[in-house]
Records
---
Amino acid sequence: MSERHTCPSSQAGPGATLLGILGPGGRVVYTPNGPRVTPEFQARLAARGGGPLESRYRFAAPCVESGCVFWDGACRAVDAAHEDFVAVGGALPECGIRETCRWWAQQGPAACAVCPSVRTNGSTS
Ligand code: SF4
């Protein structure tokens, strides 16, 4: 398991942090320095209703590499994201995890172009 890389499309749960909130049009509004996910925080978000947390928020957590179905020596979730979601140009999002982001490490700005469109439960969790 990598100690240095962070998955930007993690499930909610212990060890995760809030990466962003899906805003209007399904675009992620990033929350740099977002709170750590605790059972209490998770319950508060769940109480707002509206389906699985991962369909309304994005979470970041340590990359588990071979512990993930998208791992084959590299992360294929970011490849799947390009197939399933629309990439947009413009400035890099201010996400707060770029220094350790697995997708950034693999693809640089191309990953950040599609990242704001990703809904984790869509296909890239
Ligand atoms: S915006 Fe880029 S660096 Fe930030 S989480 Fe998404 S892919 Fe990673």
---
Amino acid sequence: MRLKDKVAIVTGGSGDIGRATAVRFAIEGASVMVADINEESGLETIQMIKDDGGKAEFIRTDVSNPQDVEKMVTSTIDTFGKLNILFNNAGVSIEEKKIPDVSLDTWQKVMDINSTGVFLGLKYAIPKMEAGSSIINTASVAGIKGQKLLSAYTASKSSVIAITKAAASENGRKNIRVNAIAPGVINTEMVTFWKETKKWPAISTANALKRIGKPEEVANAVLFLASDESSFITGETLLVDGGTLNL
Ligand SMILES: NC(=O)c1ccc[n+]([C@@H]2O[C@H](COP(=O)([O-])OP(=O)(O)OC[C@H]3O[C@@H](n4cnc5c(N)ncnc54)[C@H](O)[C@@H]3O)[C@@H](O)[C@H]2O)c1
């Protein structure tokens, strides 16, 4: 088992990438706190883990709310005794629009969840983490490319890559590692909107492997970064994109 006796928080654990990762973490021996605004799906995630003989609890958390995030961390420690892994993964996407048509409300909402949400996770978890802990933040290929028509999403994910590097530098001496993953197009609830558009066949195969990614393939990469197998890697952003940027 690669995470034996570890304690992990997975934000966005009611969604597809978060759920696949929470389930995988538990199979590898971790106790998992699933944190999300969606209680119904979050309870399903923890039931899947419990049915497999693993340990998991759910806490309703809005990652953009500081009180919620602080409580998420303290409740995890109260429940499982410590905190070794944080997967800062909750996020939202937006409909395609050119910058002049993006409302300030939309910009603010995306930044609050995707960017401030990651900051708050780091802010409250790091002081409670022991040496050897690992944090993984979910960025996106969009945050590297600068995706047209998705300005707020792209900007929010770029900031995740930047704060990952800052947090890695600040916490290296304590042996707390901080990395990011940058998924390409992954078959999750988030891409449902695209599936109804004419662009979908092109979007879903716009990578060297010519297919869409699976949540479990992202979970494998997160597991590597969470485990001691990546013990000399910090401040890195790992692309999980089937070669999207290599076309
Ligand atoms: N699916 C893709 O193609 C893709 C590509 C790159 C990056 N990502 C990123 O992966 C992460 C996971 O997304 P997914 O693809 O599994 O989509 P998803 O919609 O299945 O999961 C997202 C989860 O985040 C939760 N969430 C949204 N706002 C929240 C908030 N304020 N507080 C707490 N939870 C909140 C949702 O309830 C949902 O469970 C996101 O950060 C997303 O931006 C996805």
